[in-house]
């Protein structure tokens, strides 16, 4: 009944009914907790935060070791805009939290509440402190860095974010994730030389991580340095043969108008992946996306010719022929099938 009354904003009647419910709880702690949470919330909404605090304090006295209850009461304060009270209660909870992971998670929550109360300096200080307590390459590390970025991006302060990440990179030189984010930010800000230098430094520290070298090549390609990007991907392909790299190399060649070299890369890709229909179609689409329709058709015909008895390959060839304009030939092939 009190819940219905509260939903209609009849808080005084709801509080009266909740007081009666508490008095007739019969010692059922779960029921007392449910009633107490709602009573505290409604007291806050009626301008009685001190009385709400007393009720919630009494709940905690009944269950002094119930961390879930403490978290619930903190969240209720946050929901009602009592940020300073929530910050104080959460700080007390953090001090008594033994598990390191739970402690870090609650510190991040504390930083979030500070952000909501427009205390971004304190939030950033908490993030900095928490970063020193988590492992390099961990989920917590990525989460903290993402939260730091959010603070600056929400205010449109990208140069300040670059300064912040640069400082963190100097403080934590072993944390590659910081350097990656800084490299990407340099590229986003148009500081291409700084971005390239950052990626090259990362690659020197992580010689076995192919993704970092691909990221540098992608950056170069995005900013018109196609030849350099192709050279870097080609070097990587020689050191670590991976057919998917040929797709990226082919796309760069095709986008720069070198259809023959793009097709050559795709022929090698088809061969290295077993020459199946899916590989051939993927190779053809790379050339089609770049507008190299003749090269795409020639490549598909070569693939189909290498497996003349494969109905799937002939059907794929007909599909390509139809798509790029040779509809009569495609229809004839489908009829034959």
Describe the structure.
The chain has 337 residues and is mostly helical. 79% of the residues lie in helices and 0% in strands. The chain has 20 helices and no strands. It has helices spanning 2-7, 11-23, 29-45, 49-62, 67-79, 83-95, 100-116, 120-131, 139-154, 158-171, 176-188, 192-205, 210-222, 226-239, 243-255, 259-272, 277-289, 293-305, 311-323, 327-336. Helix 2 packs antiparallel against helix 3 and helix 5 runs antiparallel to helix 6. The longest helix is centred in the first third of the chain and has 17 residues, at 29-45. The protein starts with a helix and ends with a helix. The mean pLDDT is 84.
Q: Identify low-pLDDT runs.
A: none
- Please estimate the helix content: over 70%
Strand/helix succession: HHHHHHHHHHHHHHHHHHHH
Mean pLDDT: 84
Total number of helical segments?
20
Largest sheet: none
Shape: elongated
Derived structural class: mainly alpha
Share of β-strand residues: under 5%
β-strand number: 0
How far apart are the termini?
Answer: 72 Å
Radius of gyration from the CA trace?
Answer: 31 Å
Question: Care to give the gist of this entry?
Answer:
The protein is 79% helix and 0% strand. It has 337 residues and is mainly alpha-helical. The longest helix is centred in the N-terminal third of the chain and has 17 residues, at 29-45.
Highlighted features:
single chain; 337 residues; mainly alpha; elongated
